[in-house]
Amino acid sequence: MQDDGLYAALVRRGMTRRSFLQFSAAMAAALALPAAHAPRIAAAVEASKRLPVVWIRAQSCGGNTEALLRSASPDTVALFLDVLDIRYHDAFLGVSGGDAQLALTSAMDLFPNGYLAVVEGSVPDGASGGYCLLGGRPAADVVRDVAAGAIATIAVGSCACDGGAPAAGDNSTQARGVRDLVGGAPYMALPGCPVNPVNLASVIVHYIAYNQLPPADLAGRPLFAYGNLIHNQCERRPHFEFGEYALEWGDEGAQKGWCLYKLGCKGPETMGNCPTVRYGEQVSWNVRAGHGCVGCMTPSFWNEMGPAYRRLPSPVPFLPNLTVDVVGGALLGGIAGVTGVHAVGMGARFKRRRMIAARERASVAAGGPGSPRAEAGSRAASAAPVIVPGPPPAPAPGIAEPAPGIAEPAPSADAAAVIAPGSDTGER
User: Fold this and answer.
1) Residue of 238, 178, 174, 172 whose CA lies nearest to 57
2) What share of the chain is helix, strand, coil (3-state, %, to 5)?
3) Which residue of 8, 27, 198, 334 shows the fewest CB atoms closer than 10 Å?
4) pLDDT tens profile 265-316
5) How far apart are the C-alpha atoms of 205 and 72, rounded to whole Å?
6) Cβ(196)–Cβ(274) under 8 Å?
7) Does domain 228-313 have CATH number 4.10.480.10?
8) Do residues 206 and 173 make contact, with C-beta atoms less than 8 angstroms apart?
9) Fold match flag (6-224 vs 228-313)
């Protein structure tokens, strides 16, 4: 196929201009971008050359490839099979053995300026890498070589992100995720069992339009797809709020579409966009179809989220029977209790204020403080002249004042008798 750009490849595929613009708008929506970004995405795809892709499959079931090929969205399939230049994928090759390995090395040599590397499946280290060989080489060595020449590496599926099912339990093959092998190179994780093809297509279109991978969290997951709890987007969420749960498979609650939390749904602890992008022409997903979320987008979900039909584990380790809904009920009860105590305190406060006001009214009526009579007396007292005492009279001339610090002698008994008022001696 001639390489005259992505848009030309889409036109040859039979996509009309209207469908192409709808595709661009759908990619902007999937990326959680405003609708104003759709023209930029369309212009970037029109001007871009076909992006070469090298797809490596390691220790996996191949479910991510199956999800891509069986996607009901023709635009997604067209993006990978016709629009992108898939240089290597063992499921698409018509050759095997040495010829297949030659196709891989040729693809890596043909694009020295970079290609997009997609890795599916975990990478085992056990038995010196002998549990998974690609062309007679350990998968870890092949992934390192491919990632070293790539402009970006995308791990698709839970196995490629953190080891997935092969790493569950005792991890006998010592399986691990791809991130440990790519170092500081551009990397993006798309966990899921399997990955949603819409998320993979959105990441690639974002790279084509903006020449960089979309913003990601600490685990390397794009925020547009893994930035919100599944529980908060679920169509069964209103039933959770009203305490309406299915208690057994097929019971009345299950038939009415009630919340599946008590049957093991892991939506309250799983980050993903399954309720919005869905599967099968975007019309349904597992919870909508009647099965609880198994938490496949959560790291190490085989160990952390299993068994699939067990309710979420207790948030308090030393109380294993405590569940999230019990904690929520206790918190609500505690809030209600605090609210009640606050209401009682406010009632006592208002009652005290009423008693103080009543005493003040009684005091006013009895002429006490605050009454008109008391206020009139207060005004009269404030209006009376204030007598300020003057300085003491000066001593008579000829009489010296005692020196400071020298005590004045006490009068004698005779002198006291002379000046004592009312005495016989004084009258003489």
Assistant:
1) 178
2) 45, 10, 45
3) 334
4) 999 999 999 999 888 777 889 999 999 999 999 999 999 888 888 888 665 5
5) 19
6) yes
7) yes
8) no
9) no
Half-sphere exposure (Cβ direction) of 384: Cα atoms closer than 13 Å: 8
Q: pLDDT tens for residues 199-242?
A: 998 898 888 888 899 999 999 999 999 999 999 999 999 999 99
| The two three-digit tokens of residue 54, written as one number | 């090298």
For the chain, the straight-line distance linking the first and the last C-alpha, in angstroms and rounded, comes to 153
Alpha-carbon distance of 167 to 379, in angstroms, equals 92
The residue among 183, 174, 189 whose CA lies nearest residue 59 is: 174
Rounded-to-integer distance, Cα 140 and Cα 1, Å: 32
The residue type of 63 is G
| Angle between the N-to-C axes of helices 17-30 and 197-210, in degrees from 0 to 180, rounded to the nearest 10 | 100
Contact 239, 246 (CB under 8 A): no
Task: For residue 70, give the nearest of 57, 81, 86, 55 by alpha carbon.
Answer: 81
- Is the pTM here over 0.90, yes or no? no
| Helix, strand counts (H, E) of the chain | 20, 9
The strand pairing partners of 54, in sequence order, are 88, 117
The tokens for 50 are 């076909």
Class of domain 6-224 (CATH, top level): alpha beta
Q: Is 166 exposed, middle or buried (0-12, 13-18, 19+ CB in 10 A)?
A: buried
- Dmax over CA atoms of the chain, in Å, equals 156
Indicate the domain borders of the chain. 6-224, 228-313
In which residue are the tokens 């063992």 written? Answer: 90
CA 326 remoteness from chain centre: 22
The dihedral built from the CA positions of residue 307, 310, 316 and 320, taken in this order, carries a sign that is negative
* pLDDT given for residue 3 in this prediction: 58
Q: Quick check: 236 and 222 in contact, CB under 8 A?
A: no
Pull the structure tokens for residue 39: 């023209």
Q: Angle, to 10 degrees, between the axis of helix 197-210 and the axis of helix 38-47?
A: 80
Give the count of beta carbons closer than 10 Å to the beta carbon of residue 139.
26
Average pLDDT over residues 166-176: 94
